[in-house]
From TrEMBL:
It catalyses: a 6-O-methyl-2'-deoxyguanosine in DNA + L-cysteinyl-[protein] = S-methyl-L-cysteinyl-[protein] + a 2'-deoxyguanosine in DNA; a 4-O-methyl-thymidine in DNA + L-cysteinyl-[protein] = a thymidine in DNA + S-methyl-L-cysteinyl-[protein]. It comes from the Bacteria. Pfam families: DNA_binding_1 (PF01035). One of its GO terms (molecular function) is methylated-DNA-[protein]-cysteine S-methyltransferase activity. This is Methylated-DNA:protein-cysteine methyltransferase. It comes from Sphaerisporangium melleum. GO terms for biological process: DNA repair; methylation. The lineage of its organism: Bacteria, Bacillati, Actinomycetota, Actinomycetes, Streptosporangiales. Signal peptide: none annotated.
Amino acid sequence: MTSTIDAQVLPTPTGPLSLLVHEGVLVAGGFTDDPGAMFARLPVALRELPLRTVPDLGKPAQAVRDYLDGDLFALDLVELDQPGTPKRQRLLAALRAVPAGTTVSYAELAEHAGLPRTAARAAGAACAQNLIAPFVPCHRVLPSSGGFGGYYYGTPVKEWLLRHEQAL
């Protein structure tokens, strides 16, 4: 049996959310109705596998439904995997540890990752290359200068997520 990348598109109040799973592990998630757009961002080895749409991914899809219903910690329980250097992995782990309902600055994120000498720019790059939104909650990172900063899926999506988590 050939391994596949399984995809499901879920409706959310802020637009469609595509989830991609490989062998039961979430490898991509993003606010788009096109799973192919998420698939194109995966590492080469995963892009060599067939992409197929399925009616229900199980645990990751249920976690999204639970999150939208108010269980703000449901996404934390989903197993996921994304590529990156050891430094990037530390930043992504620190990002995943930012609790719902709170925000941090890019500099604070670097500090929480144990990388205080890392410029906020490296933390920003980790967010920009994050493949698994909102499970790795880059929407919870705000610039220390104020405002919302950037978000791969647009500021309105970031604002909605923060409002949903009551971090605004």
